[in-house]
Amino acid sequence: MPMASTSAGMPPLRSRDQQPPAWHTLPIADALCTLGSEAARWLTAMEAAARLARHGRNELPEIAGRRIARMLFDPFSDFMILVPIAAAIVSEFAKESKLRPDAIVSPCCQ
Question: What is the pTM of this model?
Answer without folding.
Answer: 0.33
